[in-house]
Amino acid sequence: MVLGPTLIASLLFVYGFIFLTGWLSLTESRLMPNYEFAGLVQYVELFDNERWWTSLKNLGIFGVLFIGCSIAIGLFLAILLDQKIRVEGALRAIYLYPMALSFIVTGTAWKWMLNPSLGLEKVMHDWGWTSFTFDWLVNSDMAIYTVVIAGVWQSSGFVMALFLAGLRGIDDEIIKAAQVDGASLPTIYWRIVIPAMRPVFFSVLLILAHIAIKSFDLVIALTAGGPGNSSSVPAIFMYQFSFTRGQLGLGSASAMMMLVTIVAVLVPLMYLETRSAKAMR
Q1: Which of 259, 214, 249 is nearest to 29 (CA)?
Q2: Which backbone phi and psi does 121 adopt, to 5 degrees?
Q3: What is the maximum span of the chain, computed from C-alpha positions, in angstroms?
Q4: Is 80 exceeded by the pLDDT of residue 85?
Q5: Is-cis flag, bond preceding 5, omega within 30?
Q6: Contact call for residues 178 and 33 (beta carbons, < 8 A)
Q7: Cβ neighbours of residue 231 under 8 Å, at least 6 residues apart?
Q8: pTM for the whole thing?
Q9: Given 1, 70, 149, 267, which is the most exposed site by the fewest CB atoms within 10 A?
Q10: What's the rounded Cα separation, in Å, for the pair 119 and 123?
Q11: pLDDT-based confidence at residue 281 (cuts at 50, 70, 90)
């Protein structure tokens, strides 16, 4: 009786709308829904759309760099704090602070800082470094990397917290035994500690992949998908075609492809983790 209302709400407002979106992707819906079945015409149009492929390319660049850099920086910070330094509490709060901000705030703040006429470039010019240039925000070839910078800045602290919790869960006796055997600290972390944190890596990778695939607010606030379509991602594509271009069927098809991408990432990871857990038993 307690779980019943939540279960019904989830079935209706999550899986029900997933089903509805999937059906709309099989229709010729334009500005308003049209429930007449039309086959895979929207998917054919989607894969013939150059903007869709640009969005997928940008998602690939953003996803790989965002996940890789967040894991590397978060793990480094976690190992640093795991040394039980005096100011650990203050540093942990500083590193975690960006996660308290919404992606809209993060995108807006970084947009000011990276704006050539307002931010970093202007400051360096005011200090006398007139030859300094940093115009990535308005450079169509580099705009997607500004999204990576902002995303990594916000998420690294959260990743650090997860890794730090994993590090604190490892038995100190194992580390002490390795030290007695003459292993150096880098070797201990590389050969013993990090492999023991496999479940934490799985969780971090899953969370970051989900954030990357559905990224919308950060991109909207920072670049709005521009210049042109150079930093557009699938979520931007879906929103624009569904609600501003009056092509609801095409937008629904792109939404279903995003769902398929998430499932394609989630299922193999869960399978590998489950198989590894069984092998360890």
Answers
A1: 249
A2: -65, -40
A3: 72
A4: no
A5: no
A6: no
A7: 58, 143, 144, 146, 147, 219, 222, 223, 225
A8: 0.86
A9: 1
A10: 6
A11: low
Contact 114, 221 (CB under 8 A): no
SS3 212: helix
Residue written as tokens 């947009």?
A: 111
Query: Which ranges constitute the DSSP H helices of 82-197?
Result: 88-96, 103-114, 120-126, 143-168, 172-180, 185-188, 194-196
Q: Write out the two tokens for 59.
A: 């998602």
Listed residue (161, 162, 166) closest to 92, CA to CA = 161
| Angstrom distance (rounded) from CA 70 to CA 76 | 10
Neighbours of 93 (CB within 10 A): 12
How distant, in Å, are the alpha carbons of 66, 165, 176, 187 from that of 179?
Answer: 34, 22, 5, 10
* Amino acid letter, 154: Q
Q: What is the pLDDT of residues 152-203, one digit of tens each?
A: 999 998 999 899 888 888 877 787 788 787 778 778 888 888 888 888 888 8
What amino acid is encoded at 243 in this protein? F
Q: How far apart are CA 148 and CA 65, in angstroms?
A: 7
